[in-house]
Write a structure and sequence with these properties.
With about 240 residues, this protein is of the alpha/beta class. The chain has 9 helices and 8 strands. The strands form 2 sheets. Strands 5-4-1-6-7-8 form a 6-stranded parallel sheet, sandwiched between helices. Bound molecules: magnesium ion. This is phosphoglycolate phosphatase.
Length: about 240
């Protein structure tokens, strides 16, 4: 079995800035911040890390109570922000997910800095909610490498407990894992868990920036996923 872990923003979908809009509206309503500082980067980072940095920049104490206040306000506003911004599912995503399902790969999951309920809102809005059975989410940690480790552990647990033969004579172990993402942070967290890193410049970084991070595979987008599928076959001994 092989685990394939997808980043969400800039990899599966472009929300047209809906996430940032919901961040801005929440900071305005909950903390009186009129305009968000442009100095805090969003791409490839966890919701918790972004919110914490924004609180520090705007003089809001980033303690747990304020995080929970932000979290509740953000989840309340995100569905409406997704409606108001024009986003899309990125090229090749649906076809790739169909191909993975047809090839019998059950361990297709998420590796995202989004908090779990925020990820659910985004995937539901774009009709992708039933495509992923597990994942690592931004609730787990500020650190993307820790989120990746959580996603990999969940894939390993599923391989052993859900997908091993009922006889238990043969325990399914992972033959490998792949992380697909749009930023250098996705490449580095793939490295942190020993996964094959696929990078696509469809979101937070240019092709040149991604190339500098030396992913195992750099594609223009996911519309020709043959090299990616070939790597999965190779890792599984096919
Ligand atoms: Mg991303």
């Amino acid at each position: 079995m092989y685990a394939i872990l997808f980043d969400i923003d800039g990899t599966l979908v472009s929300t047209g800035g809906a996430g940032q809009l919901a961040f801005a509206e929440t900071f305005a309503a909950e903390f009186g911040v009129e305009e968000l500082s442009g100095k805090v980067p969003f791409a490839g980072r966890s919701d918790r890390a972004i919110a914490g940095d924004l609180m520090r920049v705007h003089g809001v104490d980033p303690h747990e109570e304020n995080w929970q206040r932000f979290r509740a306000g953000y989840l309340q506003r995100l569905p409406s922000a997704l409606q108001r911004k024009t986003g899309r599912v990125l090229p090749g995503v649906i076809e790739l997910l169909d191909q993975l399902a047809a090839a019998g790969h059950p361990l297709v999951g998420l590796l995202t800095g989004n908090i779990r309920e925020g990820a659910d809102h985004k995937l539901q809005h774009y009709g992708l909610a039933d495509r992923f059975d597990f994942g690592g989410f931004g609730d787990v940690s500020h650190e993307r490498s820790e989120i990746a480790a959580a996603a990999l552990a969940e894939a390993q647990r599923l391989a052993r407990e859900e997908y091993s033969p009922a006889s238990r004579l043969e325990i399914c172990e992972l033959a490998g894992a792949m992380v697909i993402g749009d930023t250098i942070h996705d490449v580095s967290c793939a490295r942190a868990i020993g996964a094959f890193a696929v990078a696509v410049p469809t979101g937070g970084a240019t092709r040149e920036e991604l190339a500098a991070a030396q992913p195992d595979l750099l594609l223009d987008d996911l519309s020709d996923a043959r090299p990616l599928l070939a790597e999965i076959e190779r890792a599984m001994g096919g």
